[in-house]
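Incident log entry.

Two folding requests arrived from the same account within the same minute. Monitoring flagged them as a possible duplicate submission, but the sequences differ. Recording both here for audit purposes.

Request one:
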Amino acid sequence: MDKQTRTQKIEDIINREKDNPFGMQEIPWQDELKSMQVYKIPLSYLVYNKYNGRILSRTKSLEKQNHIIDVETDEGKKQIEQLLWDSKEDRNKKTEKDLDDFGQKKVGIITRDGIIIDGNRRAMLLNRLGNVDYFKAVVLPVKLDENLIEIQKLETSFQMGEDEKLGYNPIEKYLKARDLFDVLITNNNEDVALSKIADWMGEQKATIKDLLLVMKRMDEYLDEFKYEGIYTQLDGREDQFINLTKWLETFYDTQSGKAFDGYENDDVDDLKIVAFDYIRDKYEGKEFRVIAHGQKQNHFFGDSSVWESFRDSHFEITKNIQKSDIDYSSPNLKSHLDELDNSFSALVHEKFKDNLESHYENLRNKQAGDKPEKLIRRSIESFDAIQQNHHAFGEENAQKLLEELASKAFQGLQKKSPVKILGLVKKLLEEIDISEISDENLDEARDCAKNIQRVLNDFRKEID
């Protein structure tokens, strides 16, 4: 059914039943609460709104593939119905049962040309049930394209009000705020645009500003991995973007007391790149926040030496990873991009984990720098955990690190307890198993013994 036919059929219902409508409903329209008539409109006269706030990220992602959804065709209708169903399947099942048992209790809103402004999900469920052929709705006095701003205002107020927020994919509210801002800023200054969106979405103006900032970082992330416009790749990553946005807003173009002294914007750029990689690998919670969250003593970016070591190790891990070509013609782009993300994680996840854990241990040690007993005990426990019979323990790099550790321990004793060194040296010499010295190292052992004897002679002369 084309637009003209739909419009005429809906107009016929209004003219026929205007003196005896199904009911009345108060609707906020053009800054007034107006009482409007409710009609029973056949479902066959209605068209889903593909830019419905509940599925906005999905339809935009599909359109990025040049996959145009024509909601006036059977195919387009089925696509929108599937997206609406998948958007909140558990809740849809509950609502579907309620509709089956008690019918449609909440009135929808449509335009004069049959576009569903509020009630897309309910209409989809009624179509699935098939036991009712009409939709109870207020009919707005305009077609969709006759007053788009007022319709967007109404749609946002109804769909993203306090009662409906839990029914939305978290990413949708960011997209909605960004799209509304792009429309409103053409005829309003920023403050007015933010105020309007806040009113429509039932939020504070500061919250809308935060939504726009987070959306900006989300778009930057998608651009970084050539996922521009594929908003499905943001799923499950909202909290990380909220945290990253706070960090960047705190650190850019200033000298925050929450970061290491003397950092520059280039360092913040590096932070963003590192964070993007960890977001792609789906790190979250404490593991993600330790990168730059909170007071400076609690995160990597608060200590220059920890940050620089962590950052350099990270870039060493990622330097040879090639960005994969994206097949935008893939019949299931989300699955294709998920596969690319999974391939990335397979290459880096364990290395990212090791890098993060080792630097977190370093940070914890620095935090306990004035508690030497605690750190020494921690070092002993770490050493005791080593499997000394494992072949890796005998490898050159491990042995060099062990030698460095022993040297640092001796230096610590030298500063505070030099006499204890003598007792420890005596004990260590007594415990050497000569039989373990290979024939090829005997000459080196004899030279060491002579040198030790010489040092001891000099030492005795000094203290006598």
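Request two (distinct sequence, not a duplicate):
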Amino acid sequence: MAGAKDAGGEATWRFPAAFWTGNTIELFERAAYYGTFIALALYLTDIVGFTDVQAGWIGAVFSSCLYLLPFVTGAAADRLGFRSALILAFALLACGYAGLGFFPHKLPVLLSLPLIVVGGAFVKPIISGTVAKCSDEHNRARAFSIFYMVVNIGAFGGKAVAKPVRTLLGLDYVPLYSAGAAVIALVLVVLFYWPKKDDSRPRSAAESLRGLATVMRNYRFLALILITAGFWVIQGQLYASMPKYVIRIIGPEASPEWLSNVNSAVVILLVIPITQLVRKMSATLSIGLAMALVPFSAVLMALAGGMPSPLHVLGMAVHPLTLMMIVGIAVMSVAECFLSPKYLEYASKQAPPGQEGLYMGYSHLNTFFAWFFGFIASGYLLDAFCPDPKKLAAKGMTPEQIQAAFAHAPYLWYTFAAVGALAFLGLILFKVVTDRVDRRKAAHT
């Protein structure tokens, strides 16, 4: 089905077979990743036996490296070829997830997680590169809109399936479900993924690292990355803090997988309408709205205490924490829709003329910093304000003492709200300072 004519060519929804195969592969990879990722914090403590603090550090390294390594693995994939690199990637992913599931002990887990990191770091640039190479300037926006939809469908489906796997089979079966999804993706690559040969000169890892060094020396750009990391610190708590928080307070019947899927559902439904809404809005205002909303979302998640339990909503009995999580996550997701379409536009304006492409390649370093800090902070905050009740009972604490240990559980969310508020103030200061610097430069030219 062809679309309307674009200037200089025809916009179409038709793409080569490699595009559709790549997107199908991405769906299974995202389902595998998010199925395990939503359960990882719980798995590391409840199955493997790490403490909250140890699990926070492990999660920090695992999640943040997935946003740093693609700069190197992307260059390696260029040299290996996309097909060979994807076969390697999914072999690593299948082995990594299987290692988690079959050997739930500390050393095997610490050896399995790097396999998942390296495998995932290959997939990320290869599939996005496939989408780019299977489209042109006339239909690239449509190609990436399909890709973005597939990513969210995979994430939503992966977490939805992880819920019955965890509750019916057991938490230790979730990585095995992910291993199965990775094996399916591997079979799809072997049988159906045949991308066109690319005659362009492959990048080297050294070139990628030199580009990273160039970007990090631009203090304006680095400041923007660190400020917007404040948003993703809070968003990352859907995986770092929320699963343990709701299960420890509500009980094993809680559904962190479906609560996290509120984020995916809202983004899928609203990102296009909100993108249309903000198309004429300044990037500063759109990002500012997102940065103002996100600390408010964390406060909402903290407000369940003191409400009667259960609450009755539309004739259904709902735990107050479940309700406030849904409301808070929905607000966070709306904020994400305001941030996403304008962040790259705003970031590109911080790049020197002619280096916009280089800088955009590193613009998602904000997630690297956010998840590294956010997961570490989560471990310490959970240990302080929302500890594992099973471990408290094992120490001989009475039910009354355990309940008292959770009296300040909402402080976890207030702490992250404070991080978001500081980031919002940082954005205001950034805008004031950079506008002043730009006016001075303009006055001297």
